[in-house]
Amino acid sequence: MSEPFPWELGVHDAHCHPTDTMASVSDIPHMKTTTLTIMATRGDDQDLVQQTAESYSAQSKADCTDRKDRIVPCFGWHPWFSHQISNTAPSDLQTKKDHYDNVLAPSPVEDQAFIDLLPDPKPLSELLSETRARLQKFPTALVGEIGLDRSFRIPGPWTEEELEKRNDQVTPGSREGRRLSHYRVKPEHQRAVLKAQLQLAGEMNRAVSLHSVQAHGALVDVLKEVWAGHERVVLSRRKRDKQRDAECADFEDEEDATTTPNPFPPRICMHSYSGSVDPIRQLMHKSNPSDVYFSFSSLINFNGAPARKIADVVKALPEDRILIESDLHKAGEELDALMEDVARRICELRGWELRHGVQLLADNWRRFVYG
């Protein structure tokens, strides 16, 4: 018989999407999972995440211990929907057709029916302004879900059969089982949308949740761009001790100094990390000025993935950089079950006693979110 799960220690879902099924949100107060870190991904769910946060979110670090405060909201634009964002300067007027010709591959200019199905693009400046306002409203909010994805394709138009089967409780805007078209968002456009959101996270001093599919190398390149000129100096122990003494002596002067925001987020979560061990070494290099965490889910990482690969990755990480998540599209008992499952799996792989491991994971989440 398995050991009872220690929910009382606090279990925090680092990445989930319950606003994709708004009917499930009312289950949140009755869940065993302590906190849900809820992602926004597109135009259809930004307001829904905000509404849910207004009902259940923690407004300060201390509040997260209160069972009534169950949500940390996250606002961002997912790479699957990055084609809906225009990065053109306001002076360079574009038609809708020109925009999608520039950001999609292959060019859809000969497919007017497909272009007609797509929304009018939102200016990147408008997206950043709206996200900034939401982050200001919620002092504990994160930026997410953002990232890069080389494998996805834009869904095609609804067929009559798909419409008949559509679940009307699901928030519009996602794939929802539709057949995929052959159109993809160009990598350079995804990178521009991602980089702007990373810089906003730096401006607001917020952590981010990153999506990366078949794009770990490209993602590292973007991070290096925003880190450039801000790398940490890797010192010997003797030099670190000297620097610490000097910093203590200058502490009062530093208190009065004006701090310029960094162009990169202070903390990063690689959500449902599916890469190998090698990118971890790049992302965890001591010179990187952002602290990088890695989150794992049963749905993505333990559902058909090679057991040896995920075991090697989990074992290679420092214990204080591991997070757990559900990545589920609804709240309720299923999410609780996924959180218990992934916590038990991580503890088993790391050789942690269950209570010790669950406490470590809770501490890691608090440090990732609040610093």
TrEMBL record:
Q: Which residues cross the membrane?
A: none
Question: InterPro entries under this entry?
Answer: Metal_Hydrolase (IPR032466), Metallo-hydrolase/TatD-type (IPR053044), TatD-like (IPR001130)
Q: Where is this region: Disordered?
A: 244-267
UniProt-listed Pfam families: TatD_DNase
Biased segments, Acidic residues type: 248-257
According to the UniProt entry, its GO molecular function terms are:
hydrolase activity, acting on ester bonds
Q: Which SUPFAM superfamilies match?
A: Metallo-dependent hydrolases
- In its UniProt entry, what is this protein called? Cut9 interacting protein Scn1
